[in-house]
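ok posting inputs for the flavin-adenine dinucleotide job
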Amino acid sequence: MTSIWLDEVAPDDHPPLDQDTSADVAIVGAGIAGIATAYHLARAGVKPIVLEARTVAEAASGRNAGFLLAGVAENFVAATRRYGEDRALRIWRFTRHNQELVREIVAREAIRCDLAWKGSAQIAGDDEEWSEVRESADRLGTESVRVRIVPGERAAIYEDDGELHPARYVRALAGAAVAAGARIYDGTRATAVTNGEVRTDHARVHAGAIVVCVNAYSQHLVPLRVRPVRGQMLATAPVGRAVFDRPAYANRGYRYWRQRADGRLLVGGWRDTAADEEVGEEERTTPKIQERLERFLRERSPEATVTHRWAGTMGFSHDALPYVGRLDSGVFVNAGFTGHGMAFATATGELIADVVRGKNRSETDLFAPERA
Ligand SMILES: Cc1cc2nc3c(=O)[nH]c(=O)nc-3n(C[C@H](O)[C@H](O)[C@H](O)COP(=O)(O)OP(=O)(O)OC[C@H]3O[C@@H](n4cnc5c(N)ncnc54)[C@H](O)[C@@H]3O)c2cc1C
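and the output
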């Protein structure tokens, strides 16, 4: 079944590419990463071409929960353990910048994507996580992050987090990129990428630079350490009462839920309960995960009617951070979002657009594709 988002917004008409062409920059993949890259390049006066195998936002970018969170999936204490305090803070600031960029772009381009800033709840699943959630809030509080603890729910509320309709956002951003000078071709699968040329089944594209933005599908085109992992969700018909006050992210990010302004409930995750099965590129729901999502839904809203069930494919990197930069072959990449592309990719699109244009950016080391 399709996602609630893709069900609600038809794709714009971008015909396939059927003849050889050239462009300043060729971008492969039209999810949030490829479209944000195209948008930032086009606004800087560089003319990009985007090649998309399916339609804009038809893969993970039109199948996610639409959370715009700051930080990585794990709490800040866990992020510090993994990346060191200095890098963890820089990553945090980068995702805050992503939130501000989304806010700015949505206003500038008058994008109607139900963007709301109700904050998010980070909820602990056990005692150890609860002590980390509290310590994370204390630590980030000293960095002027607006966060408060709700002990009764074993939760930290991050006041500045947001949510949106991902398919409306990415498809409208694609329209803004086209208005700024980008060309987009749907139904156009890249079969090979070298420095300066992209091949498709029907055409060749010559470009001054190539940026591969195919996330979970990276290994088909470039040597990148990205593996495909499945995520599943469900959505309900509108429920006429407030069930969830704000987007919630629980059990180290493995479980999440929200309620839209129209009353519909969304529940996703529980991948940790079948980790070995929830891998690969197949966008298929499974009874095992769907039953778990529904069991949770029934605890909170026995009356809700499920209208949509879907799956999407995420691209996991080796350390949960994206790869943004240039490979040895000269090809650029912007991929590996590890289930957090809405939180990163509007800003990594800006970052890679600057790198392609030869501008120095202080964040490049955080996401260097060759990092250990
Ligand atoms: C169930 C679920 C819930 C999620 N919830 C959230 C959330 O709440 N917040 C958040 O931040 N993130 C979330 N994510 C993750 C987020 O959706 C992804 O990180 C993000 O969409 C990745 O964007 P992308 O552009 O890199 O990849 P994609 O959206 O997957 O786009 C890649 C595009 O490349 C195209 N492509 C592939 N191969 C080729 C080729 N050879 N030639 C041409 N085109 C090609 C594909 O068709 C696709 O359109 C979730 C993901 C899932 C599945």
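notes: The mean pLDDT is 97. The longest helix spans residues 85-108.
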